[in-house]
Amino acid sequence: MNHGNRAFVTLALACAATSALAQSTQNYIEPTRGFLLERGLIAEPKTFSVDLATGIGDQNIGGVRIGVPNSEIIINSALNGDTEANEIALKWGLAPIPAENININTAIYGGLAHIDYEDDQGNDFDYTNIVLGAAFTVVEQGLILNVNPELEIADDQRDDTIFNLGFGAHYNLFDTEYGRFQPGAEVVFVSGGDDDDTVVDLGMRWLVKEEITLDFVVFHGGAQDITSLPGIIRLNAVF
């Protein structure tokens, strides 16, 4: 091999190694939730992320997550679709629970939604909803397993105490130059309220870059079944 070819091969190998190193050192900042479920994780202190979602009927909804010491403030705009009220919650990170050779990341949270308004017909609506929940998450060799029990005291049109038990599984595929892809499935068993249904979400999480995450939920099953492409889209951007 002549010196020119050697130099070309050396340069090509150096570029490939640099590209591989850049991919392997990506520090993706995922939201501390799945498609539907909270995870047993909290945002880093002083981080700020915005959620925007579309494709849920005629709704365009959003939320904010703010990392504070040992906890996270979550502000959602009717993300559950059952109420028109904004919701605010505080999520506390607890010490991981050791189990065998893994750690179970744990968090608890409490939230409040209150609204008082009058519709076009002069009817007054005044209610306060309260939510209490916990989340347990294991991250092991690319697999993310999640359990999320939640109790909601609904004072709105549902007027009931509702228990949700959610399970989720996501898997991190290998990184590419276009980001990381994470297929996932989540199911929530709902007991109480008018929509006493099992809710299922199937989709793909695309970690586009370190601060940008896109969720594509192609199937949403529950009180209303939605199958679509590209699906219900939810963007999370970290600032």
From TrEMBL:
Q: What keywords sit in the KW lines?
A: Signal
- Signal peptide region: 1-22
- Protein name (Swiss-Prot/TrEMBL): Transporter
The organism named in the record is: Hydrocarboniclastica marina
